[in-house]
Amino acid sequence: MDLTKTYPRSVHEKWLGIVQLGRALDKAKAKAFGNLGEYNYDCPMDKGVFEFLGIDAEEFLAKVQNASTDAEVESYAKQFVDKKSPDEIERWNREWVTSNDTGDFFLNLRNRVAPDRTDVTNWADLLDLDEKRTVPKREASAV
Asked: Are 29 and 64 in contact, with CB atoms under 8 Å apart?
């Protein structure tokens, strides 16, 4: 994965049934091979999914660096996913992609990326916009 030439997966895209996890994997692969570009591995969003699953970020990165196949990494991550119930996973996924952020950093980035999109109030959608993905319009927020 070379994040100097492409984007990581969308936060919305599920890997092993979990949103954000595939994006964290893409960044781990890029970090492992020196192609992280402007991205940060183990950023607050990665930390969130790792905390939910009980994955240690450094151990995950080491697994990615030392795995001979993607199946090895998948098997490693799956053991953590399997500890969660379908209800826990559904709730996590729903809350993760819809939780609002109105902090200054978020608003400044949104105003730079898409000043006309006041309907975008969460990081999952903002990152998709920043990475040139289509984000459906919603009822505009007062933020």
From this structure: yes
pLDDT on residue 138: 80
15, β-bridge pairs:
18
Q: How far is CA 141 from CA 46, 69, 97, 100, 118, in A?
A: 26, 44, 16, 10, 6
Distance CA 140, CA 26 (A): 32
Domain for residue 115, yes or no? yes
Same domain membership, residue 71 and residue 44: yes
Q: Which two tokens stand for residue 30?
A: 């890029």
Q: Is the pLDDT of residue 142 over 60?
A: no
SS (H, E, C) 61-127: HHHHHHCCCHHHHHHHHHHHHCCCCHHHHHHHHHHHHHCCCCCHHHHHHHHHHCCCCCCCCCHHHHH
CA dihedral over 81, 82, 86, 91, signed as positive or negative: negative
Residues 106 and 79 in one domain: no
| Helix intervals (H) in 13-56 | 21-32, 44-53
pTM as predicted:
0.88
Q: What is the mean pLDDT of residues 76-88?
A: 97
Domain around 73: 1-84
